[in-house]
Specification:
By secondary structure, this protein is of the alpha/beta class. It has eleven helices and ten strands. The chain has a single domain, classed as NADP-dependent oxidoreductase domain (TIM Barrel). The radius of gyration is 18 Å and the shape is globular. The structure holds NADPH dihydro-nicotinamide-adenine-dinucleotide phosphate (NDP).
């Protein structure tokens, strides 16, 4: 097995690649080529969402790749406007059709907003019917995650949340581990915010290993057992971002990176009423 196909095992026994590829903010007309390049580079986990508007392009690239379906791990996400039991099932069918697939590997509730309890019931049924290998959530803060676990049959397999050196989620990862929920990082490079790629601590560690800052951070996440899905439209960066399985960070380096944590999001606060309204008003086709 190629190193990049290292997997973790979800709470229902399903293996998931620890390092995959995300397609948020990849322009629609570029997505098919970008995903084709990512698959050629060796990625086998592709992470999209209904709200990214590029599921069809992802599907075309998958179909054209000729890679056997059971070697791929495809994730998509349900947007807030489609929460609800019947709507969720319809939306699942729509995503599956756009992706050109007969099942999904992972289906996520994109945000802890709207009628997501009803969506979860629909997803539990789709899972029982074998149409989804694993079901999970995204952007759930601890209170929402524990409440969902408390009042439903299936424990989410994954919670995909903002996780990077400036917002590390170590305590939350421990809580999720105790509850059987796999942490998956979005925005591993903080999309470059906070002078990410020139941070002095990260650049010093990178120089010591003759690696890039991106590689050090991906290695740091993988070493913490965090699933991660970096995005790049450039083939040389796609290859670079996969190439993190032949070196290791020392305990001392892990501690130096741990000290960069600010404990706060660089993007948005899900407890901000203005943001909740803005997200709730956002419509996707
Ligand atoms: P990332 O933190 O992955 O950052 C992507 C940025 O980093 C791009 O500007 C990219 O530029 C650049 N980059 C990539 N590789 C390198 C490198 N080796 N060296 C220098 N720069 C690099 O941001 P994302 O927000 O895209 O997060 C990753 C994925 O997580 C998304 O694509 C999506 O699948 C998921 N996500 C989920 C969210 C959710 O709410 N569930 C929210 C946000 C993201 P370039 O493309 O030009 O190389």
């Amino acid at each position: 097995m190629a190193a990049q196909h290292q997997t973790i095992t979800l709470n229902n026994g399903v293996p998931m690649p620890i390092l995959g590829f995300g397609v948020f903010q990849v322009p629609g007309e570029q997505t098919e080529q970008v995903v084709t390049d990512a698959l050629a580079a060796g990625y086998r986990l592709i992470d999209t969402a209904a709200s990214y508007g590029n599921e069809e392009a992802v599907g075309r690239a998958i179909a054209a790749s000729g890679i056997p379906r059971d070697e791929l791990f495809v994730t998509t996400k349900m947007w807030i406007q489609h929460t609800g039991e019947e709507t969720a099932r319809r939306e699942f069918d729509r995503s599956l059709r756009k992706l050109g697939l007969d099942h999904l590997d992972l289906y996520l509730i994109h945000q802890p907003l709207g009628d997501y309890y009803s969506s979860w019931h629909a997803m539990e049924k789709l899972y029982a019917e074998g149409l989804i290998k694993a079901i999970g959530v995204s952007n759930f803060y601890p209170d929402r995650l524990v409440d969902l676990i408390q009042h439903n049959d299936i424990v989410p397999a994954v919670n995909q949340i903002e996780t990077h050196p400036f917002f590390q989620r170590a305590g939350y990862q421990q809580l999720m581990r105790e509850r059987g929920v796999q942490i998956e990082s979005w925005g591993p490079f903080a999309e470059g915010r906070n002078d990410f790629f020139t941070n002095p601590v990260l650049t010093a560690i990178a120089a010591g290993h003759d690696r890039s800052v991106a590689q050090v951070v991906l290695r740091w996440l993988v070493q913490r057992d965090v699933v991660v899905i970096p995005k790049s439209v450039r083939p040389e960066r796609m290859a670079q971002n996969l190439d993190v399985f032949d070196f290791a960070l020392t305990g001392e380096e892990m501690t130096r990176i741990a000290a960069l944590d600010t404990g706060a999001s660089l993007f948005f606060d899900h407890h901000d009423p203005g943001m909740v309204a803005w997200l709730g008003d956002r419509r996707v086709d």
